[in-house]
Amino acid sequence: MAITNKSITLSIIITQLCLVSCVSSQQQETEFRHHGFFRSQYTQVRILPSGFLELTNSSRRQLGQAFHGFPIPFNNPNNSSNSLSFSTSFVFSINAPGHGLTFMISPSMDFTRAMPSQFLGLFNTSNNGNSTNRILAVEFDTVKSNEFLDLDGNHVGIDVNGLVSVESAPAAFLSNRQNKNISLKLSSEDPIRDWIEYSGEDMLLNVTLAPLDIANPKFPLLSRKMNLSNI
């Protein structure tokens, strides 16, 4: 996950972060769960006494990243065209105006050249959009950046190697009870749960949001057919 800001305090809170990857032909699973961050396997961040993970403080133009402590394989070694399925769920809270955060999958933990603000701590002016980045990101964007064709200043997007999203939508969730879309304000300070799920067999990526006290909605906010094997 990466985060960047003008002046923002962000904490990943009440966290149950679970990422599972598996191969259909030869079952392999990697799974981890955190009900609070108490071990030093994350970088450039602060772990609060409560176990919350604080990615930035109130300093201007600050960015921070947190990576899991070991690599997770995402490809079937017996079939280079078959990427693995994965899913993750976590809760976040954005406490002040800023540019937002991303969940990312990257082959490298070296983001020393990444820029803050509209570059979301992922890219810079020279590498944004390069296919060699091999980065999948889901952005929770709280500022409209016209140069990246953002919808508005409160949206969720799927990014592949750059910040022009291949799919995006205003932040919202489909209420199972009311059967309608209800808007969410990403920078409201309220805890928001996110589900990111990819089926390697169907080559389908789903992204779903909801307030913390709402069960996983039946339908995702974003659903995109995509082959991630090259990423």
Describe the structure.
With 231 residues, the protein is mainly beta. The protein has a single domain, classed as Sandwich (Jelly Rolls), CATH 2.60.120. It has no helices and 18 strands. Strands 2, 3, 4, 5, 9, 16, 17 and 18 form an eight-stranded antiparallel β-sheet that branches. The chain has a six-stranded antiparallel β-sheet with strand order 6-1-10-11-12-13, with no helix packed on it. Strand 4 and strand 5 (53-56) form a beta hairpin. Mean pLDDT is 78; it is low at 4-27.
The gist of it:
With 231 residues, the chain is mainly beta. Helix content is 0%, strand content 37%.
CA-atom Rg in angstroms: 17 Å
Which series of helices and strands comes N to C?
A: EEEEEEEEEEEEEEEEEE
Could you give a short account of the major beta sheet?
8 strands, antiparallel
**Tally of extended strands?**
18
Quaternary structure annotation: single chain
Q: What is the share of helical residues?
A: under 10%
Spell out the blueprint of helices and strands.
Layout: E1 2-4, E2 10-12, E3 20-22, E4 46-47, E5 53-56, E6 63-65, E7 75-76, E8 79-83, E9 85-94, E10 100-105, E11 136-141, E12 155-160, E13 167-170, E14 172-175, E15 180-183, E16 192-199, E17 204-211, E18 222-225
Antiparallel strand pairs: 1-6, 1-10, 2-5, 2-9, 3-9, 4-5, 7-8, 9-16, 10-11, 11-12, 12-13, 14-15, 16-17, 17-18
